[in-house]
Amino acid sequence: MSNDVIARLAAANPVPQPAARHRSIRRPALAAAAIAVLVPAAIAAADEIGVSNGGTPVPLDSVPLGPALQDLKVGGTMQYLGTLNGVAFYATRNADGRYCMAIDHVDQQYDKGVGCDLDPDGFPSVDVRALTFPPERQLQGIATDGVATVEALDASGNVLDSTPVVNDLFASDKQLGDAVTTIVTLDANGNVLTRQQLPGR
Fold this sequence. Notes:
about 200 residues; about 30% strand; globular; four-stranded antiparallel beta sheet
């Protein structure tokens, strides 16, 4: 091959040259590269956290206090997730994409409740793997896949109550008080997954 052909090939496919070692240029380049790698990883991790208990659709007007959720932009149906320890659970997402829940103590006439998680980084997410209602009264709610136990702690870290998760649901009958400051989720090996500080505690 002639030198002229080699020269033309070299011009068409230049070999990248090493970047100049200039600190003020290299540091931002490394930071940008780190962001480009970490952001998709964080999104992927968030996507993996969910509730596989899809439940069965039921009309909203058949859910105890369900019509009250219409003010929170919930549509015409909710998903019945099941009953655990005498507590029936319903869930759905409202028009804003927020996770909403209804609970019904089936053997008690008045012990029912509804609500939506309105926090920006709400349930289910990397930092919020249990939605309790109401957290200051009893450990009752919905947990993400992989959560085996939900605990209620006081300000000193003492465990006030601990209850297992069954099919993404948990329902303890122990009455709690204002001492609850933190909700902790654990996996099947007892490893802490999240510590959720209750607002104002």
